Amino acid sequence: MIAPKKHLFLKDKARKIRKEIVTMVHRANSGHVGGSLGAADLVVALYHHLMKHDSTNPEWESRDRFILSKGHCTPVIYAVLADCGYFPEQDLLGFRRPGSHLQGHPYQPKTPGIDASTGTLGIGISTAVGMALGAKLKGQKHYYYVLCGDGEIQEGQVWEAAAFANKYKLDNLIGFVDRNYLQTDGHSEKVMPMDPLDAKWASFGWKVFEMNGHDFNEIIDTVEKAKKENRPVMIITNTTKGKGVSFMENKAEWHGKPPGIQDFKKAIQELA
Amino acid sequence: MEYKQTRKGYADALIELGRQNEKVLVMDADVAKATLTEQFEAVFPDRFFNCGVQEQNMLSAAAGLALEGFIPFASTFGVFATCRAGDQMRSSIAYPKLNVKIGVTHCGISTGGDGASHQSNEDIAMARTLPNMTVIVPGDYEESRLATHAAAQMSGPVYLRFGRDKYPVVPEIHGEFQIGKSKVVRQGSEVTIITTGILVSEGLQAANILEQEGISTRVIHMPTIKPLDEAAILSAAKDTQGIVTAEEHSILGGLGEAVAAVVSENYPCPVHRVGVMDTFGESGHSAELLDKYGLRAKDIVTKAMQIVKR
Lengths: 272, 310
Hints:
The structure holds 2 protein chains of 2 kinds.
Chain A: H1 4-28, H2 34-50, E1 65-68, H3 74-84, H4 123-137, E2 144-149, H5 156-167, E3 173-179, E4 182-183, E5 186-187, H6 188-191, H7 197-203, E6 207-212, H8 216-227, E7 233-238, H9 261-271
Parallel strand pairs in A: 1-2, 2-3, 3-7, 6-7
Antiparallel strand pairs in A: 4-5
Chain B: E1 3-5, H1 6-20, E2 24-28, H2 32-35, H3 38-43, E3 48-50, H4 55-67, E4 71-77, H5 78-84, H6 86-94, E5 101-105, H7 123-128, E6 134-136, H8 141-153, E7 158-161, E8 166-168, E9 183-186, E10 191-195, H9 200-212, E11 217-221, E12 224-226, H10 230-239, E13 243-250, H11 255-266, E14 271-276, H12 286-292, H13 297-308
Parallel strand pairs in B: 2-3, 2-4, 4-5, 5-7, 6-7, 10-11, 10-13, 13-14
Antiparallel strand pairs in B: 1-8, 6-12, 9-11
Helix pairs in contact in B: 1-8, 4-6, 9-13, 10-11
């Protein structure tokens, strides 16, 4: 359990981040709003409570890393990084615009705070297993957090990475599957059934937890438990795609559709 | 003539590099006996990572290791790195310009008995279109060894291409290896042969034949496909009547097209390509296939004659 004051702080942060997500995607008229809103609570909990990091020193060797394997959800990570002070909030105005460092998908060489480039699905978790192995070779103790989409895990490469993490006993790797059951073309279990996820990950040698991805207490408790495991951990994170904006919730169409001016105004009202 | 494996040059260099720099790691995808990286594993078991049969994860994980400051040499067959794991080469390595070396063996038609599925005749084309990627195709054992060292010295992604078979040792191409620099291995004034990879020996033989016909022939060996030594190409275009390119790769997208583009934009002259035609290969002995697919000295001579008779 976290202190009520901290809980309130995280809720406020998440609301601010959600407003920023909707604004960025509306302004750019391009981007992924649904999955970003759904992951907002988790990313806020990571950056404002769980992770050891320092926005004044983005290259700090001992920091915990976050890899957005579902790379299309850049609005959530950019909003959080800007809020943490990794770069000026006005940079968010350039999201998806020429000359901006805020590319449609994360690009590590250019954006302070982005720990790995992702975009094509499957490469994020795979890069993360290499990073986590590298840290173990150096005897470092920090953690690697990687967020996968539940559509993304249909990629074969994800399961290659899962096997690799088991082989090299990457106990510094904690993954999340953002389980909202929606992907671009519809319901995930119709597009390509992957349930039962817990049994799949467990059979690859991972410890599996499940949590409500909108409950800060549960997120923080589960991650703290995960850190005590001596093997890679996958946390099935149950979320609502579009969370926080009533008309976007649980709608596949809001995966990659930017809100027009009316929808944008309605969304901002709800998030006020 | 002495024959040695180019992949052995790669494997020997890895051990030398392993001794020099503890950041050097080697990865393989269950072909360590074939790429010969098992030699590295024997000396440095803690710095060798067999990824099993998963080339895609190997390349992205190599990117992760590079982000942690290591210099991973990810090793597999050419066809698996470029075709199976093309996205990972592009998105995980080339795009963020990470310090990953992709060392591939079993390239070209001389892969032999495994047949078309394993004969990578398209990989140079795929690798050289990736921004940030350096592409090196060494000509023999020693040059393979030196090129591997040069790749480790530079920061950034490198695609190193080797064959399976034993290939002629060509002393003319030994000595200092500089990425992006070609070597004039024979001076000549009427026609130029530009070779890459193991066809350098065929190029030199072709020059001998042409000299006997009274045709003064320049031979340039160009192990770096990218960045391309444009100055050497343009000198050849200006000094001689035309250029024959020779590569153990498809005529599409490799050395030949790269040379032709430089020439046509700057100093047009005839460029004829020797390479595998737009076709898949087949099973056979390495030598039989080099004959059948037209990658011999006589094939280079035929093209050179076409140029001087124009």
